[in-house]
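Protein 1 of 2
SEQ + STRUCT:
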Amino acid sequence: MTETTESTESTEANGQQLSLSTDAAKNLATTTKTAPQMQEITSRWLLKLLPWVQTSGGVFRVNRRLTYTLGDGRITFTTSGADVRVIPAELTELHQLRGFSDAEVLQSLADGFSQREYEAGEEIVREGAPLDQLVLIAHGRVSKTGRGAYDDEQNLGVLADGDHFGEEVLGEPGQWAFTAKAKTACTVLTLSRPNLQAVLDRSPALRAHLRSTRDAEGRSQNAYGEAAIELAAGHHGEPALPGTFVDYELTPREYELSVAQTVLRVHSRVSDLYNQPMNQLDQQLRLTVEALRERQEHELINSREFGLLHNADFSQRIRTRGGAPTPDDLDDLLSTVWKEPAFFLAHPQAIAAIGRECSKRGIYPQASEVNGHRIPAWRGVPIFPCNKVPITGARTTSILLMRTGHENQGVVGLHQTGIPDEYQPSLSVRFMNINEKAVISYLVTAYFSAAVLVPDALGILEDVALGS
């Protein structure tokens, strides 16, 4: 007995194996596997939250009341070294020059601008001074302030690259209704009244255009620029009631369904033999569809044709007061979409920046519960994350706020269900062929678009600084 014990101890000391190793045992065990994982998959809140409208025929026409063009677009410049010049054709973005096409006169106006540089804090125009120049902001940020009813200073907003003020110089003489100061170092182009008058004296066409523009402004319209519907209220006796009709836009905008496609290829040998416990074709198709849906959400936000960032009305775009997204900025954004706002949409880093700014002020907003998810919110409006909202090289981004639904005259998604070989709503998987190498091809297609039914359904807070 003593010899056996000594032998066992000697065996263990020599490092000899006493039982089956785990490496060998694994050959007899069934491995538990996951389906293929993909980091690109996100929550895709925009696709879930947008109401989708069936778009038969592939075209969605948005009919609106006749709206007079406000011409409040932004102006583009060219640079040569430190010299900045306005592109003459871009001057037609000014309301009073909208539709004016005389290139020679526009060139004369562009030549009349002078370049000026301002340091941060320097005053550009003063409230109450004669309005004697048109100012175009080529680079930098400018704050507008005015005096309130009790002589207190009021913030009237922030202007930046491409914005302008003082367009009234093209009309009747007046005074500045606000003070404009440079928040950062600014480069601006100014057109003085004498330089403008010199061009007017040489151009009867320009004088006639400005006169017709002023006449058009006298037409009856509501606060949104729509042709007014004449009504009478609160009258006594038997006055003659006004006659009216609702005028429509003659050329309403039409949205065509966009498409995202790819060709999925699977070798027949793989599809035939390697399907346990998971079907290879199903997994290939699942991940392909996920990538296609991610691209769909990206296009809904970033497409220059129908993307929300590029289709928001200029009057619905505002800028942050100081760069970082403060509670005041979110309130300003809510004021642009004040009729039944549905949700904010922002990059996760922008949501983090909002949280930092709230924490600095000792503000801790309550979260909102949406379909079992705890979502950060502001004033009860949830802020959903979306990594498709771009971040610029200067680490700035945008925050979107929208009203949704056809009944609410909001933002809607467009698709067409019932298409041939439909795999998901408005997404089809169509067998194409098997080539001479036994590779099977499937065409995977998604049709989609988005429409903003009225301008005030979508607001954007721009130039949101994310910080370090």
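Protein 2 of 2
SEQ + STRUCT:
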Amino acid sequence: MAGDSSHAAERHVQAATCEAGRNTQAGWRGARKLGIPSALDRLVQQAVLQVLQRQWDPTFSDSSYGFRPGRSAHQAVERAQGYIQAGYRWVVDLDLEKFFDRVNHDILMSRVAKRVSDRRVLKLIRSFLTAGVMENGLVGATDEGTPQGGPLSPLLSNLMLDDLDRELERRGLRFVRYADDSNVYVRSERAGQRVMAGLEAFLTGKLKLKVNEAKSAVAQPHTRKFLGFTFSNRAQVKRRIAPKALTRFKDRIRELTQRTRGVSADQMIGTLHRYLTGWRGYFGFCETPSVLQRLDEWVRRRVRCFFWKQWKRGRTRFRELTARGVSRDLAAQTAGSPHAAWRLSNSPALQHALTNRFLRSLGLPSLRQ
């Protein structure tokens, strides 16, 4: 390793090791523990990362996309699409069971030692791996896994799975890996079953990792999801948004547009703007504009429903509708309607009063732009 990083490691190794044990805290995402480094740990890890990543990243597989400079999930999805289009219409969808929690420290450090000769740096990296997590005020030891939340963990995870990449390349297989999500593309189900069996044996025997049999499968790509996307089962393969991603999207929009949240319309639109802009930046990569159009219409309907509930009383509703150009007869008919808010949100009166242009002027973005 370069000399400047060695000297930095030597100066901080003792302090970083102590701070790791005292200050690392645990967060939760479902049942997964997140090791959040102290400020000093994060600083040192970031310094080590900057040096090691420059050295290691060029040696990683061209089929690896996760946590690498200049590479993205979109590139991974596009490459998978290319394999399917080329006739590899079966996928070995490999899911590693609790990968980040079960990385064997000795196996990982043996890989690190092949690339780093400075013992001070090796000691520093192991100290981060074994720092532990704090739960209910008590620090628990970590004898396996790469603590999520630290800057160095993604690089170490890529190093651990580089063995898998090399094995797939040695077998001449077409694959795409993003972090612990690996898809191998083959021409037949029988070939896929052979590959799955071979990879299970390799991962268990060499890397001490376990394949999650409930989430892994040999299947046709249109029945599986990869990084939030799936693919059409046609001669011309198209990227589509996975059904589960669409369900999560709608659940989140319902949550943000609930009248019972106690927020103003401006606050609601502001939150929606941030969420929709980020979501569009990622899932706008799909090749199904009709889906985005339907989602656009649905989101606007949710917003109109929010306004209708906010106006509450029939008199207020009548006043708001007429003020926005709705005829008095139609406004009176709509304001006095016994139908529920969701049905009325699609009524001519509300579509006239709260036009698409008006909603855009409030800051509501379109998913199709």
